[in-house]
Amino acid sequence: MRTDSQPDMILYRIAHELHADLNGVGGLTNKGRWNHKGAPLVYLSEHISLCAWEKLVQFESINNIPDIYVCLTVEVPDDSLTILSKEILDRDFKQWDTYPHSLKTMDFGSNFLKENETLLLQVPSIVVPSEYNFLFNPLHPKSKTAKIINIEPFVFDGRLKKMK
After folding, report:
1. Range of the domain at 40
2. Residue 8 burial (CB < 10 Å; 0-12/13-18/19+)?
3. Residue 36 maps to a domain
4. Residues 26, 33, 74, 69: is their CA dihedral positive or negative?
């Protein structure tokens, strides 16, 4: 049973400094594993380090990592959550973890927004399989109760550029 003294869920997001919000603008112009282009889905993670890994795999070259990112700490109500387990994904979404992204997962995430039943959808990370990402629905009525409680610069370690 939840009491008022219990904090909401704390999640993280590494984003371009111009998109340090929870509006989902990136999903309007870009597709992702869980959304079609035009679906304003916001990707959050349970750990800052997972956010960094998830961002790193998006770069074409490790040498082209710009220093224009910030890390958002987000307090999100956890009473409107759907969990999509790896077992369900393996059973119902063959090749959900492949690249390029499966149309089935893109359809599922985009439909999650349209159905607007819950604020968050928990999904397993592919980059770190034992950890989780959370898809935040900025269209859900409870989205306004989520709070960005901290924004700070995030710079990827320069030693990454030495990697080949």
Report:
1. 9-157
2. middle
3. yes
4. negative
Q: Is residue 4 part of a domain?
A: no
Number of domains in the chain: 1
CA distance 51 to 15: 9
Distance, in Å, from the CA atom of 148 to the CA atom of 90, rounded to the nearest integer, reads 33
CA distance 120 to 67: 29
With beta carbons less than 8 A apart as the criterion, state whether 146 and 136 touch: yes
Note down pLDDT in tens along the chain; length 164 residues. Answer: 344 445 589 999 999 998 899 999 888 888 888 999 999 999 999 999 999 999 988 887 777 777 889 999 999 988 889 999 889 888 888 888 888 888 899 999 999 999 999 999 999 999 999 999 999 999 999 999 999 999 999 998 877 777 66
3 part of a folded domain:
no
State how beta strands 147-154 and 132-136 pair: unpaired
E-state strands within the chain: 9-16, 42-45, 69-76, 81-83, 120-124, 132-136, 147-154
